[in-house]
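Supplementary Methods. Inverse-folding protocol.

Structures were first reduced to a discrete structure-token string of length 147. This string, shown here, constituted the complete conditioning input.
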């Protein structure tokens, strides 16, 4: 809704700004988890807090009118067939194939970096902080001492 009412030239910038909501959501979830105690089983409380907020935002959204673009498209009975999507996707891939390969490699690198960082931290700290859990997991067996 916010992007539909934005000027066409500014939509790319506004889209990037709105995507920062993901990062803000992570911060809010971390704060909510700390607020309920931060223990292992508090994720359920954080889940229900987030579910309640999502439902509240949905109910607030019902109060807003539809965008001008949506009303005009509905009035003109403008529908897009799935075949048009695939046609445009094929055109985009033919014209921007180098950029697509670059983005795939970049995102693969980001994911690998994140996974390797997480695994290093997990492999090094889990056996020390929770040895009873580490003993139950077979691949941590080498890091723990048997009683």
């Amino acid at each position: 809704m916010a992007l539909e009412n934005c000027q066409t030239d500014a939509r790319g910038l506004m889209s990037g700004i709105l995507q920062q909501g993901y990062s803000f959501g992570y911060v809010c979830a971390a704060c909510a988890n700390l607020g309920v105690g931060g223990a292992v089983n508090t994720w359920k409380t954080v889940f229900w807090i987030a579910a309640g907020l999502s439902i509240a935002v949905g109910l607030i959204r019902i109060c807003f009118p539809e965008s001008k673009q949506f009303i005009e498209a509905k009035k003109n009975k403008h529908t897009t067939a799935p075949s048009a999507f695939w046609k445009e996707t094929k055109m985009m891939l033919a014209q921007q194939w180098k950029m697509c390969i670059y983005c795939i490699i970049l995102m693969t690198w980001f994911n690998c970096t994140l996974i390797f960082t997480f695994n290093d931290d997990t492999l090094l700290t889990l056996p020390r902080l929770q040895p009873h859990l580490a003993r139950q997991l077979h691949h941590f067996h080498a890091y723990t001492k048997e009683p």
